[in-house]
Amino acid sequence: MDAEEDGIPPPGGSRQDDQDWAVRRRQFMSQPSTVASRRLQAVCVRRACKNYGPKKNPNVILDSLNMTVPKGVIYGLLGASGCGKTTLLSCIVGRRRLNSGELWVVGGHPGSRGSGVPGPRVAYMPQELALYGEFTLQETFTFFGRINGMPQKSIEERMDFLIKLLQLPHHSSFVKNLSGGQQRRTSLAATLLHDPELLILDEPTVGVDPVVRQNIWDHLVEITRPGQKTVIITTHYIEETRQAHLIGLMRGGKLLAEESPENLLLQYNCQTLEDVFLKLAVMQNMGKRRRSSIAQEVIQQIPVPSITNPALDISDEDKCEISGEFGDNISMSSRGRDVVTPDPINMRIPEPELPPHTFLDNFKIFKMHHMRTLIWKNFLWMWRNVGIMAFIIGLPLLQIVLFCFAIGKDPKNLKLAISNNELTDPLDCPVTMGCNDSYLSCRYLKFLEDRHLQINLYSSDGEAEESVRRGKAWGAVSFPQNYSIALVERMELGRYAEESTLDTSMMSVTMDMSNDQIGFLIYRDLQYAYLDFIQDVLKACDMNPALGLVPVHFQDPIYGPRNPDFTDFAAPGVILTIIFFLSVDLKSGAMLIERNEGMLERYLVSGITGVEILFSHVATQFMIMVGQTILVLLFAFTFFGLTINGEMALVIILTILTGLCGMTFGFVVSCACDTERTATYLALGSFLPIVMLCGIIWPIEGMSPELKIAAYFLPLTNPTESLRFILQKGWSIGMFSVSLGFITVLAWIVIFLTLSILLLKFKKG
What we know:
This protein has 765 residues and is an alpha/beta fold.
């Protein structure tokens, strides 16, 4: 079957030839279609319905739409914003599914095995630029060529041809340095690169020089001339589509007309396609019983041809099968039309050969050439963004350094207000040594200073307490008159000491407990300093120092030091939190940038699956996360000497798994959110609950029973406890408390990955 017999306009034909072809096409397409005839078309849509929102009040996007795009034509799809063009194109390339109706693209159903859609048989140029500004033209063409399975030699040949055709700069130029028009032409070149059967171009000539625009149209006409390539193009320049073989005028989810530009102008007696569109829009409103004053005025000014013929009555089903004349997609009312309907032709077309399918193919979740190309692209992007990568790697180092310097150390030089009433001059406190029982209060103050407390002497108890009220000291200590004498009598008389002696031998302490940690530390230092002071006096007087001890002997701890450091307690949670949330931010940002710039849409139309995209990001960014982990652990345990009593290998593995869990959570965030701002809110909103409930700030045992149960199901709770057991207790993976952390983080990785794939596959249709 040659081009004319197949319904394709003859190349280089005259206007009369084009008109004759349009008539033949309408006669051919107006017959009730069959599955065989639909498979002959490049695109065939029948009774397509697509809506969003609740079933009771849905937002209808496509309303029983019929559309036919023969092979070997340029099809101009025109319509205002919001009429459903983008949704229709998304369904054609397999990115969305119809709620009902049939859709055939290059002989198959999009998404079915062997259809090649999404895949290399179709190419899509979105309205967004959808290019990496950090790549050169050559790298851009190499990337898109490899994605579509082209050999390098073919990529270079096509690149040279397209650069010349579209008047692009040298292939070593960076995309970000090109003008807006050059970038649009580069995006078009990336679409044309692998020479697909079906080209879908969304506003390809916006901002393009008129000469280059004509070159583009000439090339599109040239590639469709043999009858094997088809182009669907959308544009705001309605008159520009006069160069198309067919145009479809779309409004309100329906096609108002589907015909050649010349026939539309003749049929509706108009000089411009804008006038044709206006007439059809008015008639659509008439068909829907919408007779506004504006519509009546337009009808009076513009003659509308009659489109009804009551002599002919065809069923609704036959109407749905017919595409090519005005009214097919507007209403299923009882009006008739004068339609040429030849006898149906029995067409038997052999089923397309499907690629061989084996049992092992069911377990192939990605194609190797896709994975290699995506990983190469990710590494190239990182290489071209050295500053960003340095920040990403350096930020966790800065955080662990700040943590080790700022958190967990005992506060020093805390101020105490002292009023010593046993001194003649309260501001002069002499320190005596040896077995000397005079001015023991001053001797005790010397031990307080050894604990890095700052002693400020005041002349009265009132002044000392007033300094606490004014925030100049954390506590006030008052020694009564004859304190030293009473203290000696208390030690000598023991249980025979009088009540007045006991009262006089006691110092009075008034604390500022607004800060629990500082108050507790001063309370501890006052007690420890007193024990050291009493033992020193007893030893100087040749008495057993043990007499001054509390009669409770604490053995060496089984785990941990006698005086534990809060830094060691908080370090496991801080390390895991740093790695986890940096991975969340990095991965969610990377995915959102690709989606918002149109790259993700282009990937999926090229046949790349969501699983391939996720795993390619995991493969490349996993290496970054491993580097972050090694540097954080190196600084924490080597430079700052944090406690580690267990196996370093377990620490590294658990930290890397936690980072991987953060990566998968970042994928969930990017798939669930539409904007970077929303993703930031979600990531920050999850930060505080996870940190507060995973045992970093306070032990889990201090929570309420209900909250404690919920906390154990969070991603960082059990891993933090496991890492603490490894570092502080030296436990191995054989202990259930340690293995539980590994099990928890692995379970969350699976959950987050599953959610990511489901969201990427089903969100927004």
